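lol forgot to send this yesterday, sorry. struct tokens for the thing we talked abt
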């Protein structure tokens, strides 16, 4: 893969729905997509028929019915016929598939989108279904309890402190004041947060990303098409995904080798990075990623507020890449990175590095 090939594809549009604890305006995630598609197409000046490839990220387990993603085509319109695909993952992985599609020259434009209505079920139990189906999943360890085990290891190893975790949350809420789509925002001090009770020791409720309904969409385009439809495209200079073992006992939970490997393969250089939008559903995970990636003080981490301000399943990771791209497209950054994670305790990690040229 040459640099010329990767630099020819850019993010030219991004839209997301409001992050809400209960989305009262819709009975399912699909209905969030119709206004979202209108918004992102209007931003780029493209028409629906101009999109060469569509790819979605969602989950039948979350929706509670088989092939639930097929109904998303109703939000696109199946006629004239479209080229469409789906991943049972966060929309960030749908973006990766769309990127490869454009890289192969099979399309000049693509829209990747993700959606989910987390409030429809018991999310902490649903996420237990991604664990080892023979030995772990039957015990139903919920996602917050597993994250608490990781947080305890990070605290005991001296990697993080409870004060740093609280400061991370306070910073997220402060940054989220500038995002009208955020679910949680406001002025709060770390000292105030530390007085609150534990949810799953050592995690307090604010250390955990809130349950959110929402959706996001990102538009990709190649070469001259990108330049024609965006004043300052966010060119993709690297894109990579890596996985750690699924069995929790096979890895050191105070490290994230897959994040380091994915960031390295994507060409993430902290010395030249302006912004990093990290998909860290728990406060200690943001600190862990900052440490593992070597992000210094000069790198702005989660200026959008991150997922601690709103975490719609299956679109939150895609929204991190979209938010990173928006920093580049707006001229607020020359180089940014968007990150997505999946699985327990940062098992899977994906990085997309973007630049202004």
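and heres what i got for the seq, position by position
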């Amino acid at each position: 893969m040459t640099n010329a090939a990767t630099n020819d594809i850019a993010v030219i549009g991004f839209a997301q729905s409001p992050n809400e604890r209960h989305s009262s305006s819709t009975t399912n995630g699909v209905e969030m997509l119709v206004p979202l598609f209108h918004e992102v197409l209007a931003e780029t000046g493209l028409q629906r028929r101009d999109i060469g490839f569509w790819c979605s990220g969602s989950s039948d387990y979350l929706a509670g019915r088989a092939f639930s993603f097929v109904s998303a085509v109703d939000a696109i319109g199946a006629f004239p016929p479209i080229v469409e695909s789906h991943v049972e993952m966060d929309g960030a992985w749908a973006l990766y598939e769309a990127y490869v599609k454009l890289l192969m020259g099979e399309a000049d434009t693509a829209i990747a989108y993700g959606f989910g209505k987390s409030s429809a079920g018991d999310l902490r139990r649903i996420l237990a279904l991604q664990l080892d189906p023979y030995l772990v999943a039957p015990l139903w360890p919920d996602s917050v309890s597993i994250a608490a085990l990781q947080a305890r290891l990070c605290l005991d190893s001296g990697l993080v402190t409870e004060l740093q975790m609280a400061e991370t949350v306070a910073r997220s809420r402060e940054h989220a004041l500038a995002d009208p789509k955020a679910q949680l925002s406001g002025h709060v001090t770390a000292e105030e947060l530390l007085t609150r009770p534990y949810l799953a020791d050592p995690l307090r409720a604010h250390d955990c990303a809130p349950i959110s309904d929402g959706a996001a969409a990102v538009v990709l385009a190649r070469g001259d098409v990108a330049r024609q439809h965006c004043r300052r495209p966010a060119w993709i200079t690297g894109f990579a995904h890596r996985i750690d073992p699924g069995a929790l006992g096979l890895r050191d939970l105070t490290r994230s080798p897959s994040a380091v490997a994915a960031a390295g393969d994507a060409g993430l250089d902290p010395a030249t990075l302006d912004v990093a939008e990290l998909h860290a559903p728990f406060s200690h995970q943001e600190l862990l990623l900052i440490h593992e990636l070597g992000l210094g003080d000069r790198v702005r981490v989660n200026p959008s507020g991150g997922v601690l301000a709103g975490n719609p399943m299956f679109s939150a990771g895609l929204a991190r890449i979209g938010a990173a791209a928006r920093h580049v497209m707006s001229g607020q950054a020359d180089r940014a990175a968007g990150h997505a994670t999946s699985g327990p305790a940062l098992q899977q990690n994906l990085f997309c590095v973007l630049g202004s040229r």
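The longest strand covers residues 211-222. anyway ping me if u want another try
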